[in-house]
Amino acid sequence: MGLAGIALVSACKDCKDEPTPPVRFTLVSGSGDLSGKLTEFRALLGDPLNLTPDQTTGRREVNWDGVPATLTNPNVFPGDFFNSTDPAVAAGRKRGLVSTTPGTDLRVSNIDFTDVVASEGNQFNAFSPPRTFAPFGSTITENTFRVPGTNIEATVKGFGVIFSDVDNANSTTVEFFEGNKSLGTFKAPVRTDDAGFSFVGVLFPDNKVSKVVVKSGNAAVNSGLADSWQNDLVVMDDFFYDEPKVN
Ligand SMILES: [Ca+2]
Ligand SMILES: [Ca+2]
Ligand SMILES: [Ca+2]
To answer: Which residues, 6+ apart, have CB-to-CB distance to 79 below 8 Å?
Structure first.
């Protein structure tokens, strides 16, 4: 079972209005063998796994593995790749995800970023081989949602992400927003086995999540720093979210 909880979003210091009601959530997180955690989180998001636009239930997943070779390894990955609105483009690119970074670029790798951080080849792993994902010039990736195949802004109830090589219990977080209001920040657990994967997924039954800010590590993958507890380099693989909708 996931960890159900409530979080007080903001203390109302001097205001005379009613305090902000607690936010209900279900957290699913873990490291090591993630299979049970993913089964649990997929069930929370709902079935089926949607592969085409015009859906109202179920979930979406992005494993980066369908990204073409021309957009893999150079710093040219367009953050709206999985929200194409072009009728001529295949349905597989219409998943309603738009990612941006305050850094310089987004990058998809099929070689575990070994061309960037040579010493990390045996630490970064693809959960779904061969491709993984990371921001450059920053550790932050901001994710928003659209009705798949359109530019219509949408929200989700839940979002989860698999990380590779979390060494520091405070380096890697996922923060959820409803409009400008933070619904909470959740930490990824440190890696616990040779595969090195960690997962964080949170579902908010009463809220409309419009933005998910992922902080993967506390030093950018291309910082030139060696991976350490202090300068923890982390990459991402699979994303999971329920069908983006106008609620
Ligand atoms: Ca993958
Ligand atoms: Ca490491
Ligand atoms: Ca690391």
So the answer is: 98, 99, 100, 101, 106
